[in-house]
Amino acid sequence: xxxxxWRNPFFxxxxxxxxxxxxxxxxxxxxxxxxxxxxYFISVEGVVVESSxxxxxxxxxxxxxxxxxxxxxxxxxxxxYTILTAFVIAFLRVFLSIPLxxxxxxFLMKYKKYINGWIDSFHYIPLTxxxxxxxxxxxxxxxxxxxxxxxxxxxxxxxxxxFLIVPILSALLGNEVSLVYKQEFILSAKTLGAGKWRIIxxxxxxxxxxxxxxxxxxxxxxxLVIFIHLGLLTLFLGGTDVDYQMxxxxxxxxxxxxxxxxxxxxxxxxxxxxxxxxxxLFFSATMLSVSFMIEGYVxxxxxxxxxxxxxxxxxxxxxxxxxxxxxxxxxxxxxx
Length: 336
Fold this sequence. Notes:
This protein is mostly helical. The chain has helices at residues 9-32, 71-106, 112-119, 127-139, 150-163, 166-181, 184-191, 196-207, 209-232, 258-263, 274-302, 306-335; strands at 41-44, 47-51, 240-241, 252-253. It is elongated and about 85 Å long.
């Protein structure tokens, strides 16, 4: 029996966290702009006891960076750029892959083997490395400064990170569509005279609704992982601000988006670990929230646990592989 997804505690927990992060980010920017409070040192009776970077304190729960900037303030400002951009990329990936997957799984079934063979080659190309080489000319600030606006750089990055995955997702959805197309209720509809377009819109798409929502969440998390990888390669969302002075500062993020906060502070991991670990913590919390939303949605719509079902399938596969290995070893002993 289906229940309202808004009554599921897992979905609510995940949704509330993401909503609070985005809403607080817009509210912060509306009130204070991109100004972040600073704390250069802490003194007791006129004696400096700690200078920036300052470790977490009650008024600065995530500490400050090397310039004395509040880490929590930077996280809040960058939340809207990080989360919304990842969602737009994930949505465009799924949205563009749906029609291609439907065509591949219905009209081009006889060519599916050859198309899948060509698309499978994309699996062997490291996505992060390919994205880096495509985005480096756009996001890395040259000596004379950017020739594009920040909006243009966001749009270019969104399009590149979208189209790199569309072929793989289209093949994946095409395989799912072809499996659904062979189901008995589809055969019954064809017997009653339903055309392919009617079958697609009335039967296939409604039956794949749950899988599409799960796929959207998975692509969101994968996009965040790519952001982290590009951040470690000092290629930041919206552009990397590069200082070409004689004594130059390290590359930094223009918008305080979270991958930039990791990339330009990872060198502090040993001396001041709270600086890189704070954005990593919020990346992890966001991905965990999306996992909660997926789990809650599946529980509300199907009454089953998505991750429990996934674990059982993985366990069953491992068990089958072990049985297969034992049978092969017994067969070899007999033939010795």
